Amino acid sequence: MPPLLTAIVASACLGALVGLIRQWSDQKTASGPVDFGGVRTYTFWAMLGCVGAFVTELTSPALIAVLFGIVGAQQIVAKFNAPGGTTFASTLLTVLTGCLVYWEELPAAVLVAATTMVLLGSKQPLHEWTRTFTRDDVRGTLQFVAITGVILPLVPNRDLGPFEAFNPFSTWLMVVLISGLGFAGYLAMRLLGAGAGLLATSLLGGLASSTASTLAFTRRSREEPELAGEYALAVAIACTVMLPRVLVAIAVINTELASNLVAPFACMAVPGVIFGVWLWWRQRRTGEAGPAVRLRNPLDLKTAIKFAILYAVIAFLVKAAPQLGLAQSILPLSFVSGLTDMDAIALSMARNSPEPTALDLATRAVIVAGIANTLLKAGLAVALGSPGLRPRVAIVLGATAAVGVAWLLAH
Question: For the chain, which residues make up each domain, given as ranges?
Answer without folding.
Answer: 3-127, 132-410
